Amino acid sequence: MPIYEYGCLDCGREFEKLVRSDTVLECPECRSRQLERRLSVFATATSSSDAAAAAAGPCGSCGHPGGPGSCALH
Ligand SMILES: [Zn+2]
Description:
alpha+beta, Rubrerythrin, domain 2, 3-stranded antiparallel sheet, 3 strands, rod-shaped, binds zinc ion
């Protein structure tokens, strides 16, 4: 679940927010919804190539009947 850092455009307060699909984003200080997303904590911890590798999973995990190494991805 991604945690994003936001800055409030109205009062300048910066805060981190764990964002779910139903999360309403507002400033904890002034309740403004004029927010600017600064960065994702996850994005700084892992590069995009690492994320892609994790999504693909280890070799042999795709369930191809030919076994590990026989599918197009592994
Ligand atoms: Zn604010």
